[in-house]
Amino acid sequence: MSQLTFTLPDGTVENVEVTTLLNAGYAGRNQEEVASHIAELAELGVPAPTTIPAMYPISPYLAQQTDEVFVQHGRTSGEAEWALVITEDDVLLTAACDHTDRDLEVHSVAWSKNAAPDVLGSHAWRLSEIADRLDDITMSAWVGEGDGEPSTLIQTGTLADLLAPKYWLDVLRERGLYAPGTVLVSGTISMRNDVDQFADSWKVALRDPSTGDQISCSYRTVRMPTPIG
Length: 229
Description:
Elements: E1 2-7, E2 13-18, E3 20-25, H1 31-42, E4 54-58, E5 63-64, E6 68-71, E7 76-77, E8 80-86, E9 91-98, E10 100-101, H2 102-105, H3 109-113, E11 118-120, E12 125-126, H4 127-130, E13 138-144, E14 152-158, H5 165-174, E15 182-185, E16 201-207, E17 214-223
Parallel strand pairs: 3-15, 5-11, 6-17
Antiparallel strand pairs: 1-2, 3-4, 7-10, 8-9, 8-15, 9-11, 9-12, 13-14, 13-16, 16-17
GO molecular function, one term: catalytic activity
Protein name: DUF2848 domain-containing protein
Pfam families: DUF2848
């Protein structure tokens, strides 16, 4: 299992042992946005989904708070997302980046998402405390090359672009998955066509415009040695 630690705005620290990890897919509220994302993936050879939205089970140990993601080749990339984290007595929301193997994705989206971690932020908000302004929270992603910090904007939007947390909490309850230790990652928004997604580093940030608070996660990819055999 994966052990995660989140610091909340009031300084409280929540520790969560991940028992279930789920990745939502094709989860935009705007169907044009969903169609754009499907077309974006089709350019990479990924077949269109049979059900929208989708939800993929991921190995729980892949929920990580890390600044390094190890990859086997140069065709992997992240995705700007938010994550719901169910604790013993609350639901938290944090920034997340679903790193995906794009070569494997053409064979199976579920396989590709099990090939690299879902990177989560180390800070979180209590969902109940931001529920009245969720749609105003912005979500952005940047990529970087070489040793530089991620600074090239590749994704930008708000939580209003994706299905609301309440939708997914209802799904979890219906499927008997609403329990302490469940983490659900939201699905993503379209990437800019003029930015190379196969970057060396990624950063995702959620920002609450009413308070100026920001939650982020960032990491650098590390290429593993060439296999022998």
